Amino acid sequence: MNKTWPIVLGLLTSVAAMVAGLLTGTDTLEQWQLAARWTARASFPLFLIPFIASALVRLYPTGWTRALMRNRRWWGLGFAAAFGMHLACLLVNQWLRDNFPPTGPGDPGFYLYLLLLAMVLTSTDTARKRMGRWWKVLHRTGMWGFWVVFVISDYLAVIHGEWPAQSPLTDPYFVVGIAAALSKLAAWRRAKRRRGRLS
Fold it and tell me: Taken in order 131, 129, 146, 168, is the CA torsion positive or negative?
């Protein structure tokens, strides 16, 4: 199977979310608002795969976790494709609100999109070799940055009544996001203990 299929999946998922938003909204502004919101939500599962791949292979070294780890780059690019569609919907929504461009150097989201672009441009073996340890710094910063944005966004959406969940603890996206972070912490602690036994 072609390794690039996660990119196609990311595009198809985000397009489906965009179409659902456009078909559900009652007017043009609400349609693009829902399209932006739902494409962000649709991209979250694609984000989780590269985010927890290394943790899963440390905690559960099986064939499928190793396969996820081998293809983590392509899952990351699939997420980037989906989130790029979210950005397009967000730009249209903000243009309809006469707030274009919606971000700038004073907006934290501006730097998050720059991080995503940098991660995409450096998603090659050549870039990883040339950047050395800075490659890990860039990609780790970007992944945790997106994790913070997703988890905080889900938390705020719930407490502001934008989702049917009664509390963040009953919102699947929030709970899964916290569980993903805890799995990475557990994997880090296991690796630290293993290094301690070998030293």
Answer: negative
